[in-house]
Amino acid sequence: MAVPLAPAAAPNGLAAPVAGRAGGDQPVIETRGLRKTYGKFVALHGLDLVVPRASVGLLGANGAGKTTLLRLLLGLARSDAGGARVLGLDAWADAIAVRSRVGYMPESDSLPPGTTAADFVGHMAEMSGLPARAARQRAADVLYQVGLDEERYRLIKGFSTGMKQRVKLAQAIVHDPDLVFLDEPTNGMDPQGREEMLDLVVRIHQVMGIAVVMSSHILEDIERVCDHVVILDHGRLVVSRPIRGLEGDDGRAELLVRIDGDPAPFVARLAAGGLAVRRNATDDPWEELVVAHNDDRAYDLIRDAAADLGVPLRSLRARSSSLEEVYLREIGPDGVAERADLAGGAPVGGGRGNGRTPAAGRRGRRDR
Q1: How many degrees, rounded to 5, is the angle at CA 171 between CA 125 and CA 223?
Q2: What's this model's pTM, rounded to 2 decimal places?
Q3: Is 44 helix (H, G, I), strand (E, B) or coil?
Q4: Considering only CA atoms, which of 92, 19, 55 is closest in space to residue 179?
Q5: pLDDT per residue over 41-78, tens digit each?
Q6: Phi, then psi, of 235 in degrees rounded to 5
Q7: What distance in Å separates the CA atoms of residue 140 and residue 122, rounded to the nearest whole number?
């Protein structure tokens, strides 16, 4: 999805800072030529990216550059070339201001084990500038929101993985940020905990009004909670677009048509009208035809062909590409081994997958 830049531009080509809370069409993230290397390893290759205010999924295999991008956007690392803006602020020059308006839930377990959830989240609220009493109240409110109301006075060292993930989420939103970065928020969680975490992510965006960027290598998680997807592969941008209505880069969509009777005359009539038609293998007794089209003229051609030939239409519906189809089409064959469990197969490398994932069973390897 292309989001226009603000009219005024800084010398580096990025949109100039805009005061106030990000909203409307103002992008929450913008990068131009962003490059980061670690020795000879190139983590990001001149990344040009515009991210709208939405619930955004940052998708890619482990090593695709997701965590590197988040670190650069938070001002925790400096790029070798290019620039980035977050909420209109320069990610490096205005790093403190960016972090005052952004929340961050890291993938790693970085919680202090010898303190309670209430004390830790309250401390993080104070660090963001809240007075002590207000910080304690805010911490209690946020821990209630994430489902840790009764456990907030327990030591973190006794928490399960799912509870620790909730604490990390709570500290990320305790200061009411404009934008929150979630790095693998469902990592290590059981199926029920994963669903509850995803529900919380939806609530953060839809109820609390916070823009979300969720980094994940699990396709189902992105489809479940996000409006927009950004796909990285080996440090390069592959896709940035809304999830709903995904289709090929050439703008072609598909219609699924079922008819009664011999499909051959019907297919010939559509082909004569300039439509590409193929047969779709299915167990349904009525054969399904896949009609590629560029505009709504296809609907008229299908209707007229059915009427003129006296062919009953059993069904007619639009089909857009799924996120999985887009991922496989855009990434290509190079990462096939890493994506072995996209269709439900065993994870590669002996790990345990918890969904369709571009990098099954490789949670141990971090982005650089």
Answers
A1: 145
A2: 0.69
A3: strand
A4: 55
A5: 999 999 999 999 999 999 888 888 998 999 999 999 99
A6: 80, 10
A7: 8
